[in-house]
What we know:
Elements: E1 8-11, E2 21-26, E3 34-36, E4 45-47, H1 49-60, E5 68-75, H2 76-81, H3 85-139, H4 144-159, H5 162-170, H6 172-186, E6 189-195, H7 197-201
Amino acid sequence: MLRIANGRTSRAETSNGQTPIDIGIPLHSTGPVWRPASRGPEATHTLDDAIGQSIIDRVSVLPRTRRVRLMFYLPADELLETRDAPSAIRSAICADFGRRRETAEHELARTRRSGWVSLFVAILVLLTLMSMVEAIHGFAPPGRLPTLLEEGFTIVAWVALWRPAELLLYDQWPIRSDIALLRRIESAEVHVAAIKPIEARGPR
């Protein structure tokens, strides 16, 4: 079972005067943090989903203009036993959030594509129905049925534009926001430090 101690958020001054926001992530062990995604000299690691979502939740509520630094705290004995922990965690953070960002970018591209295709279809529907309305108005005798057809075709023609407008004007912004958030985490500094055993024990 994944065991994460209570995280802490703090600020630390850097040499250039900027103040990154530290996201403290105390861990009880390195075992659940990542899992190998490939083997060999260029092996990569995949971040545990629960830890990845925890980082997203915490960074998403921070000011967007501030840089973020991820601080992983491990028990000193565990850090000594797992000497590749710092590089593995950095690799997992970069690879995992890079994949999430690429997935979001593909979703944004699909949304745009669907929006333009839907707009093309909606324009064809609009032109066809409005032509029918003009034909009914010009050739049909006055009466309730022609009036109902004119009003119905007009309503359907304009409603057909709603979905393209939704895709092109509204649905993109949450995805763009997710991409910016994931890129921010992907480029964040990652530090790994040891904590005393009593700090890693956590509440019973």
